[in-house]
Amino acid sequence: MQQSSPMSVAVVLSSLLLLVIFFSGACAEEKQGEPDPLLMKHVSVERGTHIMSLKCGDKTNQGRILSCGHDAIGKSKVEGWAKAASPTRALDYHNHHFNSDRWDLLNLSGSDIVVSAISKSGTTPAPQWTQAIVSTLLLITGNWPPLDGEAALDRAQWVDLRMMPPFVLAEQMKGQERFARRVLKTHLPLDGLRFDPNVKYINVVRDPRDVAWSLYNHYKVVTPAWYGAVNSDPLVGPPVPQFDGKVNSEKQIFNDWILNDNFWAWNFWHHAHTWWSYRHLPNVLHVHFANLKKDTKGEVKRIAGFLGIEVTDDQLEHVLAKTTIESMRVDKLMFSNMADVMFEGGRESFFYKGTNTRWKDVLTQADNDALEKKAKEKVPADLWEFLKTGNYPPTGSKAEL
């Protein structure tokens, strides 16, 4: 298994210590007894040794394929996988960001809400919009108790985040037992997630050009603490390379990631295709970032309806006011100070512009033609139309969006 490039031991240790202190503090008021042994199981020597002995693409002892996330997985394989009536796990995802094993260790409930997206689509900075909307809906309607010093978005656990210390995840999940509804975050493709027909899933998408532009702004401001955390050993697959000027433009990320499937981030097309394949299920909702921008009120009402949450006009206006990018930049009860540790410029750079189509003055017609060709190779035509425009398939299709 390929290991990370040499890194200062001090940087790695200090990064992990910062994470322990931060996450432990975030859940200090929620600790209930000892960490759950079930949640600790995934750090067992046997499983860890097994995963570390494999190469990306090998079969694991669960009978699934080990994916390091950036693999270019073919359209036909997704179509074959999607023939089952309900999503099944076909891949184990392990890399600098992911440990998909953790989902095996949660007792899911019919009241749970899972928010998913490919990176930079609207769950993490751009801004952490969908999570903020869901969290504020739960707060304003009494599904969550009032905030008591912790940030709202820290209550939404990114379950498959590898860098979070496992004992802290255990404590945080115990702390959520006092909530009427839990919010769980994932960046996994659907073929790596344990799917429960009783859980509500919201998948957020965005035009891949906007995704590439957003990732560039995120990547160029990460700190040594961030690198120390994501590239810490034991690492499955290649590390995240340093932003050292070689990735010198948004267009280069667009070329490497979106057009050529040759980038450290997980595969954009595969992620979108797996979730789209089950858009017809009644517990799966697709949300497009552009529609959130264009008709925020309408989309918030649609999300609330999907979750079975009734809101008054006053409550709706409160949600809209609390979840603007300007509000989240300054509201310490919405998002924690972790951005100050992991990103140069803190919240100001973490919550960047949250705008679309910044690529229009950069990409040429030839670039857009290459994208059209790539999309045709990688995903169905109706998915590509949705990714580009936010337009839902016509009435009469199997999609109920």
Give a description of the structure.
The protein is α/β, with parallel strands linked by helices and 401 residues long. 40% of the residues lie in helices and 7% in strands. It contains 18 helices and seven strands. The chain has a five-stranded parallel sheet with strand order 4-5-3-6-7, sandwiched between helices. Strands 1-2 form a two-stranded parallel sheet. Helix 7 crosses helix 9. The radius of gyration is 20 Å and the shape is globular. It starts with 8 loop residues before the first helix and ends in a 12-residue tail after the last helix. The N terminus and C terminus are likely disordered.
Question: How are the secondary structure elements laid out?
Answer:
Layout: H1 9-26, H2 37-40, H3 45-52, E1 65-67, H4 75-81, E2 91-93, E3 113-117, H5 129-140, E4 157-158, H6 166-175, E5 183-186, E6 200-205, H7 208-219, H8 224-230, H9 250-259, H10 268-276, E7 284-288, H11 289-294, H12 296-306, H13 313-322, H14 325-330, H15 338-342, H16 347-350, H17 365-378, H18 381-389
Helix pairs in contact: 1-6, 1-8, 5-13, 7-9, 12-13
- The percent range for helix content is 40-55%
Q: What Rg do the Cα atoms give?
A: 20 Å
Q: What is the CA–CA distance across the termini?
A: 41 Å
Regions with little confidence, pLDDT below 50 for 5+ residues: 1-36, 38-43, 121-127, 395-401
Largest sheet: 5 strands, parallel
DSSP strand tally: 7
Total helix count?
Answer: 18
Mean pLDDT: 80
Strand order of the largest sheet: 4-5-3-6-7
